[in-house]
Amino acid sequence: APVTDVQFGPMRLHQDQLQVLLVFAEEDDQSNGFRWACDKAGFRCNIARTPQSALECFLDKHHDIIIIDHRHSRYFDAEALCRSIRTTKASENTVIICVVQRHTDREESSILPLISAGFTRRYVENSSRMACYNELIQLEFGQVQAQFKLRACNSLFTALEKSQEAIEITSEDHVIQYVNPAFETMMGYQIGELIEKELTEVPINEKKADFLDTINSCIKIGKEWQGMYYAKKKNGDSIQQNVKILPVIGQGGKIRHYVSISRLCNDNNKVEKTCECIQAESQTDTQTCRHKDMRKGSLDVRSTTSRGSDGSSQRRRSSMARVHSMTIEAPITKVINIINAAQESSPMPVAEALDRALEILRTTELYSPQLGTKDEDPHTSDLVGGLMTDGLRRLSGNEYILSAKQTHQVAGSLSSPISLNDIPPRITQAMENEEQWDFDIFELEAATHKRPLVYLGLKIFARFGICEFLNCSESTLRSWLQVIEANYHSSNSYHNSTHSADVLHATAYFLSKERVKQTLDPIDEVAALIAATVHDVDHPGRTNSFLCNAGSELAILYNDTAVLESHHAALAFQLTTRDGKCNIFKNMERNEYRTLRQVIIDMVLATEMTKHFEHVNKFVNSINKPLAALEENGNNGDGESIKTVLRSPENRILIKRMLIKCADISNPCRPREQCIEWAGRISEEYFAQTDEERRQGLPVVMPVFDRNTCSIPKSQLSFIDYFIIDMFDAWDAFADLPNLMEHLNNNIKYWKGLDGRNLRVLRPPP
Predict the structure, then answer these.
(1) Which domains does the chain have, with CATH numbers?
(2) How far separated are the first and last CA of the chain, in Å rounded?
(3) pTM for this one?
(4) Strands 95-100, 65-69: parallel, antiparallel or unpaired by DSSP?
(5) Which of 81, 539, 731, 750 could bridge 495 with an S-S bond, Cβ 3.0-4.6 Å?
(6) Among candidates 448, 441, 547, 443, which has minimal Cα distance to 500?
(7) Containing H/E element for 216?
(8) Residues annotated as binding site?
(9) Are residues 149 and 303 in contact, defined by beta-carbon separation less than 8 angstroms?
(10) Where do the annotations place AMP binding (predicted)?
């Protein structure tokens, strides 16, 4: 098998035989051409026919090059496969090629969607064997070799992390890009306090300005400076350091980084004498700035620091992946250290299993299940993909404009709301049992002519004493509720003010549960009710993925991240504070308002589904399990132990997030008729989105939600199985909600009954 030696600065790297993965649904001249080229080049070659087999093969072999067929979308989604591969740690240095069709009669298309999906480059189909061979050889000596060198950087950063000398790397503009643990220990800072900060701390010296000029006059012309100076630690203490500063030449022959290597001068006479000698040498050579070989007495970091601004973040990620070598231990670091220690005395099978566990722990998506762990159900994959991603980031000429240019309803443009005492009898009757879980929100919707939020809000807010807490009048609260409701879209089948009122009702119900009342303060209750009221204000009836794919103004404004949730929170405060007539916060003390505002924002953002599993898992591990342990140990009556778990600030945040999340998607736990109605409404909204995506030529985020073919029972079962069951099991264990769990079980049986009869509709035929 051919092997290659690669020179990387002073390092000589040994590169094994390259491995290539071909992903082609069917054998054709193009796949045969690449297969022949692999044999001729001496590369190992594997072939996969499906995305699942491709991913499994890659995770097993860790190929250097992957070539994916993007010519026939009917077989599989090449961009989705590429994104799946890129989510794995193993793909960090993999070169992924996209084979595209040759079009002679069409204008050249943009390559940006392919780049966004994670492809390294594209290959316009050409089944000529020599063309395939030339492509592989260019890749070997181009991108593959470059990625091979980048992998070698990990060993360099391991050396930096373990070095006893304090090392600091800055940009050409003296912005800190890296410090090692020894530097953190010496100076008393944590790395997060330093990264991307400018070097403003100048050495404390009698001739401070002259001294700094002396250093700069050396390093700015590419020469090393070595000497001794005094620096301030974080706590203000002054320390004496023996310092070496090395300029690093990069792109364009210019200085791109500076590397500072420091050693503390302590009370050891030998070290002091060394420092004095170096200092004297430095002072005598100030004018000439002796040019020294940068490799002598220091680590050659040219190759790891001269890749431009993007390089520093990439290097930091490589370094942070080795969290077990850090001196500042986060809980996950301690877990990894424990596993590493256990490996040393473990038999080989156990050590290998621990290796796999470590790989999982070092990924960033610790809480999100891998699609494919459940049955390969398109309803599940489409639903989860649509709710838990921000779209394909595909650039489009079509722009979906909403909200940013809309004129929102304000207090002055609305008719005067009625008083709580003047509510019509039919509406009063519809709200009689609003404290019960079986309260019928649709009856209130009909009685109020689709304005349930104002009326239900007035009653619930009065029951919880919100006006008294906020020190605002009932008329201000009425105006606020009316403004908020007016900015929900009644044209949406699901995300309208009835959904908001439903979530408000669920939130109030959960707040009345004994365990929740033990946990939360009055300000938390106020924040929860306000957050529930505003959590979907101005929702356009489309998902985040749709807005990102459409290039909407909101997606651009919020950088494709939690687009809608960010908009709901921001708009709620804009609508509230722009007019004194509806500003329910206007009489609050500043600090209390800031606290309330932060809790409201955090709760609204918690309704975003991409972090669903993170919120649920943190709740289970930080609250459910400790409480269960106390009960198992016979400490059920130990109020202090339970209070410690419930009342810590971190756990209260988790409880509030879980509360609004459960309230937001509690439809499957409602009585059957309400559950069915909500299922029909959300399905209609997803159908409308699919229709619009096809009209506008946008990526179809959830293809299964086609109004002509979709099985609503299957989609409901998928949603319940993936999102609802685990979350409500955890919430029930905390808040004690047997009635909700009974409804949930009954509704699961109902949907399974319809699905078992192959019915795709909401209700069985008469």
Answers:
(1) 5-159 (3.40.50.2300), 163-264 (3.30.450.20), 383-388+417-756 (1.10.1300.10)
(2) 70
(3) 0.56
(4) parallel
(5) 539
(6) 441
(7) helix 208-219
(8) 495-499, 535-536, 664, 716
(9) yes
(10) 495-499, 536, 664, 716
Phi, psi of 269 (to 5 degrees): -60, -35
| Exposure string for 398-409, b = 16+ CB within 10 A, e = fewer | eebebbeeeeeb
| Percent residues over pLDDT 90 in the chain | 52
Alpha helix (H) ranges present in 308-401?
Answer: 309-320, 331-344, 348-361, 378-388
What are the binding residues for Zn(2+)? 499, 535-536, 664
Q: How far apart are CA 423 and CA 355, in angstroms?
A: 66
Which of 63, 324, 379, 495 is an active site residue? 495
CA atoms within 13 A on the CB side of 458: 22
CA dist 342 → 70, 330, 335, 338, 339 (Å): 45, 19, 11, 6, 5
Q: State how far the Cα of 507 lies from the Cα of 662, in Å rounded to an integer.
A: 8
Tokens of 462: 């009065």
pLDDT digits 0-9 by tens, 621-668: 889 989 988 887 765 556 788 888 898 999 999 999 999 999 999 999
Residue 379: active-site member: no
- If you average pLDDT over every residue of the chain, what do you get? 81
How many angstroms separate the Cα of 51 from the Cα of each of 24, 47, 373, 494, 502?
9, 11, 14, 34, 41
Binding site for AMP: which residues? 495-499, 536, 664, 716
CA atoms within 13 A on the CB side of 478: 14
Q: Is the model's pLDDT at 308 over the cut of 70?
A: no
Distance separating alpha carbons of residues 562 and 623, to the nearest angstrom: 26
Neighbour tally for 287: CB within 10 Å: 7
Q: Is residue 312 within 8 Å of residue 177, measured between CB atoms?
A: yes
